[in-house]
Write a structure and sequence with these properties.
The structure is a single chain. The chain has 399 residues and is an alpha/beta fold. It is built from 10 helices and 18 strands. Strands 3, 4, 5, 11, 12, 13, 14, 15 and 16 form a 9-stranded mixed sheet that branches. It has a 6-stranded mixed sheet with strand order 6-2-1-10-18-17. Helix 1 packs parallel to helix 3 and helix 2 packs across helix 8. The radius of gyration is 22 Å and the shape is globular. The two termini are 42 Å apart. The structure holds flavin-adenine dinucleotide (FAD). Flavin-adenine dinucleotide (FAD) binds next to helix 1, strand 3, helix 4, strand 11 and strand 16. The site of flavin-adenine dinucleotide has 42 residues, from helix 1, strand 3, helix 4, strand 11 and strand 16.
Amino acid sequence: MPEARRHALVIGAGLAGAAACSALARRGWRVTLLDAADGPASGASSLPVGMLSPHVTRSPTPLSRLSALGVADTLAELRRLVPEGAGWQACEVDNLGHDPGRWPAALVRPSSLVRAWLNEAAALDALTCVWNARVHRLRVQNNSGLSSTALWEVWDDQGRPLAEAPVVIVAAALGSVGLLTGDAGLLEDDDLPLRPVQGQMSLAALEGTPLAERPQRNDGVFVPRYQDSGLPPRWPETIWTMGSTYERGLTHTDVSPQAHERNAQSLQAIQPAAAEHLRAALTQGRLLGWAQVRCASLDRLPMVGAAPDTAALRTLMASGQRPRVRLADVPRRPGLHLLSALGSRGITLAHWCAEQLAAQLAGEPSAAAPDLLEALDPARFALKHLRRQGGARQRPTAG
Ligand SMILES: Cc1cc2nc3c(=O)[nH]c(=O)nc-3n(C[C@H](O)[C@H](O)[C@H](O)COP(=O)(O)OP(=O)(O)OC[C@H]3O[C@@H](n4cnc5c(N)ncnc54)[C@H](O)[C@@H]3O)c2cc1C
C-alpha cells in the first residue's frame, strides 16, 4: 500500500508560512495554509521592496552566520522561481557606517517570492489555501499533548473548526502570541518573547537620473532605483526608496509625515542631496509611504522548530534526574512547531529556516551547524527562564 501523504497545517501566509509550504510540498507533504487575510503576503511580507544582503560583523555572530547562509539560499530560490526583473533584481550595497564595504545583494519584493513558493506547492498538488481564516484557537485532540500521534485542530472565533492535521506550523508573526500563550495555554508568556518593531518606508517615482549608483546603507537603506511592474496598483513602476524607521513597541500601520522626516534625517547621513529630494517630494505631496510591523524575538534571532512542553520541562528540572538539562532534553509538544521572529531579515532568513524545519519534520539529517540550530530553537527561552527560576538546582550550561 502506498504510504499516506503526511499533512501539516501552516498558519500565516507571509514569507515564513509560504517558505514552509514549499519546503514541505517538495518533500511530498500535503499542506493546508490558513491566513486571516484574503490572500498571501498581507502582513510585513507586503513590503514593496527590501534588501537581501549579509549582516556583516567584525567577528561572526549567529545572525551574521545565519544571514550568510540565508543570502545564498534565497538567491538560489529567486533564480529558481522568479524571473529577474519580475520581483527582484541583483545589485551590490555599500555599507557606509559600521563594518564598511561593498557586498553582493539583491532588491526583492517579498510577495513575488511568497506567490512563487505557493504556486510551486500548488503545482505539486500539495496545497490547500484557506483565506479569511483568522485562527482563534489551536487545540490538540487528545488534550494531553503528550501522545506522539497528536491531532491538532484549529478553530475560528465562532467556535467553528477550520482544519485539522497531526502537524501544525505557527508562522503567524506576532499573531503567534495570541495563538500560543495566555488563555491558549500552550506556551507560557516568557517562552515566546515576541516584540513588535514598526517601520515606515518612504518612496516616490524616480524622475531623471538616480541619485546614487547603487543602494547605500547606514542607518537605513537608500535604494536609488527599483523597477517592478508588480508594485501596488497606482504606484509608479520605477521608484527610489528610503527606509525604514525602527520603532520598538509600536503596532500601528499608519503612514506619518513624522516618520518620513525621520527617514529624511537618516538619508541626510547617506546622501544629503537625496534627503532634500525626499523633503521636496513630501512638501509637494509626491511622497508615498508604506508602514508595517516586524516581529522580533528578545535575542533578535528567529524561532524555528518544535515548541517546548514547559510543564513537562519544569517537572524534569524539578526531578533532578538530569544534573544539566540541555535543549536536546527539553520535552516537546508533539506536532506543534514554530517558524517566527524573522525580524528585519525575513527575505534573507525565511527559506533557510523553513528548510531546517521541514528537514526536522521529515527526519532528515541537517547539514547546518548544531550550535546555529540551537540558537534558533524555540525552547531556548523556556529553558532559560526555568533555569533562572531553578537557581542553584540548575546551573546554566551551553546548549
Ligand atoms: C518597514 C519594514 C522594512 C523591512 N525591510 C526588510 C528588508 O529590507 N529586508 C528583509 O529581509 N526584511 C525586511 N523586513 C522584514 C520582513 O518584511 C519580515 O521579516 C517578513 O515579512 C516576516 O514574514 P512573516 O511571514 O514572518 O510575517 P508576515 O509577513 O507578517 O506574515 C504573518 C501572517 O500571519 C497572518 N496571521 C497572523 N495571525 C493570524 C491568525 N490568528 N490566523 C491566521 N493568520 C494569521 C497574517 O495575516 C500574516 O499574513 C522589513 C519589515 C518592515 C516592517
